[in-house]
Design brief:
Elements (H helix, E strand, L loop, with lengths): L4 H12 L8 H10 L2 H10 L1 H4 L3 E2 L7 E7 L7 E5 L4 E7 L2 E8 L4 E7 L2 E6 L2 E4 L6 E5 L8 E3 L4 E2 L2 E7 L3 E9 H6 L2 H5 L5 H17 L11 E2 L15 H8 L5 E4 L2 E2 L4 E2 L32 E7 H10 L7 E9 L5 E8 L2 E6 L2 H6 L9 E5 L7 E4 L4 E3 L11 H4 L6 E4 L18 E3 L2 E7 L7 E2 H9 L4 H8 L4 E3 L1
Parallel strand pairs: 2-14, 17-28
Antiparallel strand pairs: 1-5, 2-13, 3-6, 3-10, 4-5, 4-9, 6-7, 7-8, 10-11, 12-13, 15-16, 15-29, 18-27, 19-20, 19-26, 20-21, 22-27, 23-24, 23-25
Helix pairs in contact: 2-3, 7-8, 7-12, 7-13
Bound molecules: zinc ion.
Zinc ion binds next to strand 14.
């Protein structure tokens, strides 16, 4: 049993009597929520709030999502939230919010951790020192679209929960309906200025992703994170009329394959062909087939990496082939994209498969698996210049310096020293190579497209919408044999 009865009296005198006459029984509800057996019985007997607690959904639908806002290293030790309409404390339960203690008189609440328990203060007065697991605080007007603000920063629909996590920190989770969650996703993922039918396709696919990946972060106590790892979510501040209209215009509509809910996947640009799921990840899904993509806008990319840089990337992932001598594509998949990349070094060879190639070497460097290899021109190396007093390093990856007198004059450079390379080359130039293998001091990866390649390419969805296709036609182009329905 923890120290709450004494605090209960403090709450009653400090909050209830001083404000709107809430009785101390309200606190008893909090204890019931916290799961303390002895208090639960008392609460049930005495507290009308606990006895009459009802599930309520802030939006139509009933599907709720737990979005991790701050967790792990970013989890705060304490935080304050704001709502102009006041608050209601309760719990996340059975796909809805179970109302507990109303606190309409308070516009700010502070949460902190003490001894592994979440404490709640209302403008300095302790409301509960064990706001238990599954706790949730909603704005008092949540049923009519009220917002809660986190730390004078972002506003959120739905409610926030604060679970005590390791190191006396709070895992902050936004608990809200799936539809309200999507309001905060679509612009971040596609941009509100995209055509409506593309935004609607994005909404359906994102909704299907959220439904199919609930619990992805279950070990951390929530469903989805706010980054590209899951889907980018910016809360109320990320909403636009256009993207909300796309969500509302497809309310509850998701993807199904042979009667089963299907997860939605998407990415930026296909480079002309999308991918079979098993050619990127491990699982084969019949509705995630690679298709020729005639709507893909050109998206060419090139990445020149020194062998030293490649080796460092491999080492970061626990692989080290020694000094790298060559890189080769040992297998391509049926769609022509890279399946296996072999990196040979002085101490052996490292083989990377499918999407592992991007996760190990950098998914923003190797933008897609649709690439070829070429020898880099001789690697640019560090260049130092001096005016005789100061010496500085030129901060550029690629550069060219002319030996001509005209070029030298305006630089006022008295001395330049080149480290590591005996000569310099044209920036970004590519030397000889077959496209399938490369060697030398640097390797040039040249490709098309951006992203994992599975499911709907967003650039193509936008292009199809511009050409007059509906969101259902867009989805049917990139997902095989799917039903699009509520
Ligand atoms: Zn995630």
């Amino acid at each position: 049993m923890r120290r709450t009865v004494r605090r209960a009296a403090g709450f009653a005198s400090g909050v209830a009597q001083g404000r709107r006459g809430r009785s101390a029984l309200a606190l008893a509800f909090c204890r019931a929520v916290a799961g303390c057996a002895a208090i639960v019985a008392v609460a049930a007997a005495l507290c009308p709030l606990a006895a009459s607690a009802t599930s309520a959904a802030p939006e139509e639908g009933g599907d709720f999502v737990r979005v991790g806002l701050y967790y792990g290293e970013k989890a705060p030790a304490s935080c304050t939230v704001y709502s102009e309409s006041g608050f209601i404390l309760g719990v996340m339960a059975n796909g809805g919010f179970q109302e507990g203690m109303p606190l309409p008189a308070y516009t700010q609440l502070t949460f902190s951790v003490n001894g592994g328990y979440t404490a709640v203060h209302a403008e300095g007065v302790l409301v509960s020192d064990d706001f238990g697991g599954g706790n949730c605080v909603m704005p008092y007007d949540y049923a009519s679209g009220g917002l809660v603000q986190y730390e004078k920063g972002a506003f959120y629909r739905g409610g926030l929960s604060f679970a005590a996590s390791t190191g006396n920190r709070l895992t902050v989770v936004n608990y809200l309906s799936a539809e309200a969650y999507l309001y905060g996703v679509i612009d971040a993922e596609m941009g509100y200025k995209s055509p409506l039918e593309a935004l609607k396709a994005q909404a359906v696919v994102a909704r299907s992703f959220a439904a199919g990946n609930a619990g992805l972060h279950g070990d951390d106590g929530f469903d989805l994170c706010t980054t590209t790892h899951c889907q980018v979510y910016r809360g109320y501040g990320g909403e636009h009329a256009e993207t909300n209209a796309a969500v509302d215009g497809t309310a509850g509509i998701k993807l199904y394959h042979q009667g089963q809910a299907a997860s939605g996947y998407y990415f930026k640009n296909s480079g002309g062909h999308t991918q079979n799921s098993e050619d990127v990840w491990n699982g084969k899904e019949a509705y995630l087939r690679g298709v020729r993509d005639e709507y893909a806008p050109e998206y060419a990319w090139s990445w020149t990496a020194s062998t030293r840089e490649l080796r460092a990337k491999l080492a970061e992932s626990g692989r080290d082939p020694g000094e790298i001598r060559s890189v080769s594509i040992s297998a391509r998949n049926v769609n022509g994209s890279v399946r296996t990349l072999k990196i040979s070094g002085a101490a052996g060879a490292v083989t990377l498969e499918k999407e592992q190639i991007r996760t190990v070497l950098g998914a923003t460097a190797i933008k897609s698996l649709r690439f070829t290899l070429n020898d880099g021109a001789q690697a640019p190396s560090d260049v130092y210049v001096t005016d005789g007093t100061f010496t500085g390093k030129i901060q550029a990856e690629a550069f060219a310096v002319s030996a001509g007198a005209d070029a030298a004059r305006p630089l006022l450079v008295k001395d330049a020293r080149f480290q590591g390379a005996s000569a310099l080359s044209e920036p970004g130039g590519a030397g000889a190579g077959t496209g399938e293998s490369a060697s030398g001091e640097s390797i040039v990866f040249s490709g098309n497209g951006y992203g994992h390649g599975v499911g709907m390419p967003q650039d193509s969805a936008i292009e199809m919408a511009k050409q007059g296709f509906t969101y259902a036609e867009i989805i049917n182009k990139y997902f095989t044999d799917v039903e699009i329905r509520q």
